[in-house]
Amino acid sequence: MIRIVEPTFSEEEKRAVLEIIESHQITRGRWTQTFQEEFARFLGVEHCFTVCSGTVALFIALKALGVDKGDRVIVPAMSFMATIDSVYLACGEPVVVDVDEYFTMDLNQLEDAVKRYSPKVVMPVHLYGGMADMENIMFLADRYGFYVVEDSAQAHGAQLKDKKAGAWGHIGAFSFYASKNVPMGEGGALTTDDPEIARKIKQWIDFGEHPAFNVRITEFQAAIGTLQLRKLKERNERRRAIAKKYTELLSEHFKTPKERPHSYHVYHLYTLMHPERERVVEELGNREIDARVYYTYLLHELRNAEHLPTPNAERFRREVFSIPVHPYLKDQEVELIIGTLLNSVSSGKIV
Ligand SMILES: Cc1ncc(COP(=O)(O)O)c(C=O)c1O
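The line above is the sequence of dTDP-4-amino-4,6-dideoxygalactose transaminase; the predicted structure tokens follow.
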């Protein structure tokens, strides 16, 4: 089976885990400190706080920005359910908008929704590893006065112009779940440049002015995350090389993913589209190639949320599927995937 995700570790992770056991410092130690410092430096931000998951990072981000009963939070129609669930958990009211040709928040609709709903927070998602239109979203944030939380769970190292995902908004939220480009098993982080926001985040993490959860990670997770982070650049480059090959050889028959101009896509997932998606995915499965649909649902349908019309997301949802693009794919596996896809549609070109 060619798996769609393949977290891969080496001797140094094993050694680090053993050293932690022997040191008896299994939580709140130097690895957690090191990860926070290295991740902040990697993104070019002042503050990074690790937490136990991406969902918790999104929830704390919203609470730190003051989201409470009735506050509107705008999210895109296509994402993992945690994006919208974090809004409900924070007692906010989500409003769902459509996505653009890059699978990220549609800017024109965003402006309409902002005028209509006066949101406290807008939460773009860098879906599949491709950047949302952060420059214009931040422009609207200044103009209309809302906060921006970037759901960067799928975008470690992605970049638009001179800034990385998680460094554009008031807060960046990350996941280090096992399938992510930086895997810890489970884990998350919040990033910010703003000292006051950093102080508020801390209140949710370190027990402070109000009741809070324990959301810490262990030293094991932090060590694995740190060592994985050090390999991220090289791994993202390999993902991009595989994606380039897919796009070159498949775009005549499939709608292949587009890269936003001036951006660096990190291909957490390589997601393409075909009107006969079910048949194509089945044929991939028959050849032991793990292809999956991310996501079968739209966020407003899943949670019956307030929304604007979402024609793009509705079409994409019927046609999208993702194929393996992880950095440990062998060249022959990439060729097998391409060959299988081309065979599955040999009867006609996409229009
Ligand atoms: C876009 C997005 N947001 C949020 C999350 C939530 O992260 P976690 O699973 O670590 O809670 C994930 C991934 O799982 C995700 O893909």
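Note on the example: Residues 53-55, 79-80, 82-83, 125, 151, 153-154, 175, 177, 188 surround pyridoxal-5'-phosphate (CB under 6 Å). Residues 64 and 200 are 5 Å apart (CA to CA).
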